[in-house]
Structures are given as structure tokens and as C-alpha cells.
Amino acid sequence: MFAVSELPRLISAADATAMIGDNVPAEAPNVTSATVAVDADTKEPVFAYLPLGDVAQLRRAIVQGTTYGENMIRANGVRNRSRTFGYSPRRPVYRREGCSSTTLAREAPDAHQVICDYSDRLAELLERIDPTLITRGRAAVEPVERDWRLGESKLWTSGVINQSAVLPWHRDAFNFPAWSAMPVLRRNIQGGHLRIAEYGATIACRDGWGVFFAGYDLIHGVTPMRLTAPDGYRYSIVYYALRGMKNCFEAAVETAYARKKRTEREQSMAARYAAGDGDVIEGRSERDPNIGAGGGLRVIGGRHQDEFDQGETRPAPRGRPEGFDPAIARKKGFRQIGGLGQNATEAERARRRAARTGDPTAIEDAYVADLEQGEAP
Questions:
Q1: CA–CA distance, 159 with 73 (Å, rounded to integer)
Q2: pLDDT band, very low/low/confident/very high, at 173 (cuts 50, 70, 90)
Q3: What is the C-alpha separation between 99 and 243, in angstroms, rounded?
Q4: Which tens digit of pLDDT belongs to each residue from 255-299?
Q5: Residue 13: enclosing H or E segment and its boundaries?
Q6: C-beta contacts of 126-130 below 8 A and 24+ residues apart
Q7: Which domains does the chain have, with CATH numbers?
Q8: Most buried of 12, 87, 140, 231, CB within 10 angstroms?
Q9: Tell me, what's the pLDDT at 200?
């Protein structure tokens, strides 16, 4: 059983949006027991915090069955690493011409299957919270072929495993308007609570419990953590519906499409090399050293993923722009959308982000970036 709590909205969405990119301060949790929170005015559910029951199989898959690369940031002695699971959209900028399973499915298929199948348990709990959340979520994700959805519930397309990741305030602007589910596994670590800005909620994130919330809408972040033993950890496993999957064909057709596009790219590279562009094999062009054949969205100034989903194939800027300030990148913690760089005014960046995402504050969440491929923000 769980309690239903009515919570007033403490700050407006606009005020919460202004916090994006700032670090989340340490705060003791004020949501510590099984709870479904509803807005005091609308009576609509805004988040839920529930025990998940037996998580032994999930823990084995996450802690023992999954590897996490060296792409990390250290904060208070805690290692921040992430690994995506489920399905990934086309990303020609990374030479991924077709939608596909993430690399975890190939490297650790048994663990990946356990993680994806657990989506059905989470969907059952979400339906207990409010059946309309399932109905609305499935309606939102309807544009995505069923081949690219997780489990039997078919509610989510993708996910990320965050290993002891301290995340600043952000909104999941790249997701469909479907609630996310976030199981947490932890040992020998303090802090790491999920905060939801608009409602002043600091959720305890106990081991074996899960948080369900509208991450696409609510500003949220994670409080600082401190290890209490060398083997401590905190894994949050976030299940979500990624908007970029809407352009994927049925699986067999997608495979043929990707093969065709890959052949076209390779033929184009061969033609450039034959024309005297010797650096094309290294992924860079001597005619323009800032453009690479497979350049990635590596720094502030990357373009919105939907451009590539919609067929945009121009090379993306590569390398750090003049005036790049690493402190800004560390503060944001994510790749910023906009394509204008740090020397542009905030008004210019906001205008560009709004035009491309509908959200003038949009940032690309860490889980959208291919961290498993070493593309550090």
C-alpha cells in the first residue's frame, strides 16, 4: 500500500527552468516512505516512490553483468559513469546510419535482456499508481514501431544506467511525454537523493525502491554523494521513451536502410579520397580542419538530434570552439543544444534551442549521448 499526498507547486515552471545546469545542493530527503504525490490543485499525479520487491536478478545484471568504461567525472570521490540500454536512433554524425540496439545488447546480451524485461515489472507498478499514465504513455509513444519498444509492455524505448552520477538540474527534453521509471540500487553511499524542483520534493532513493515521474516536464537533479566504503555504489536505471525513435522503420526494413546509407557514405569517402582528400581516412579534411567525416557533437554548440533524424547530413563542427570554457561544460554537465558556441549571447542560444526543440533551455541529457562509445560531453 502507499499513501497519497497532495503537494502544492512551490515554484513556477519558468522559475524552475532558470535553475537548469546548476548543481543540486545537498538536502535531507523529505519523501522516505511509499508515496504517490498529486498536485494539490489539479489532483493529477506528479511522481511516485515505491518499493520494487525482489531486485536480486536486476542487481546481478547491473552490478556484475554490465561493464562501465573509463569515461567518467569524479565528484567527492564518486565515479560518474553511464551506460545506455534498449534501442538507439539513427545518428549519422556517429556513423550510425540505422536504428539499432545499444552496444550493451551485443557485449552483455544476458544482462541486457534482464534489464529490458524488468520494464514490464515497472509498467505494472505504474498502472497501479494510475492506469491513465499507461494509456497516455502508450498514446505518446504510438509513432514508434513496436519492434523498438522494451518488453511486453511496450511503454519505453530506451534507458540509461547511471553509476553514482551526480546530475545537475535538468529536464528530459528529448523524451516523449510518457512517465519515466527509475529503479535504484545502492550500497555504502550517502546522499544521491532525487530532487524535484517544482514541488520541493527530495526523494530518498533507497536500495530496491523506484521513482516514477514525468522527467520530460519536471526539473530534477541528484544531490551530492559520498562513499562510506570503497565498494560503495549507487545505480539509477532510468527507463524512458526517446523521441528520436519515431523515425525508425520496422526492424528488417531499418537494417536494409542502414546498409544502403552506410554504402553511400563509404562510396562518398572513397570518391573524396580519390579526388585527393587524403585525410578523409582519418576522419578529417585538410580543406577544412574543423570538419570531420564522422565528426561528433562533442562540445557546447552541437546541433539538435532531430536534424539528423530528419535527414540532415551536413558535417557537425568538430573540436573545441575558440573561447571554449571547460568550467561551463562542467557546470552544465550535459551537451548544450544550439549550435552557436559560447561567444553567442544567451538570447541567441535560447532562440536557436527553441526553434529546434520547442524549449529555449533544452540540453541533451547524458543518456542521449553515446557515452559507451567514448563521446564525452
A1: 20
A2: confident
A3: 12
A4: 666 677 767 666 676 677 667 665 554 444 333 333 333 333 322
A5: helix 13-17
A6: 126/48, 126/155, 126/179, 126/181, 126/212, 129/36, 129/45, 129/48, 129/50, 129/212, 130/36, 130/45
A7: 3-247 (3.60.130.30), 251-372 (no CATH)
A8: 87
A9: 96
